[in-house]
Amino acid sequence: MVKCPECGKEVKDSNFCNLCGAKLNKPNLCPKCGSQIDDESIFCPECGEKIMDEEKKDEKSSKPEKKEKKSEKEEPLKQEKEEKTEEKDAASKKESEDKPKETCPHCNTKIYDNNVDFCPECGKPITFDIQSFEGIKYTIQLKKVILFTLISILFSSLLSIIFSLLLGMSPTDLYPVGFFISLLIIVGIFASFKDLINGGLVGIFTGLVLGLLSGTIVELSGGFTFSYVMFSGYAAIVFTIFGAIVGVLSTKFLRNSVSKFIDVEKLF
Question: Phi/psi zone of residue 260: left (φ > 0), alpha (ψ -120 to 50 degrees), beta?
Answer without folding.
Answer: alpha
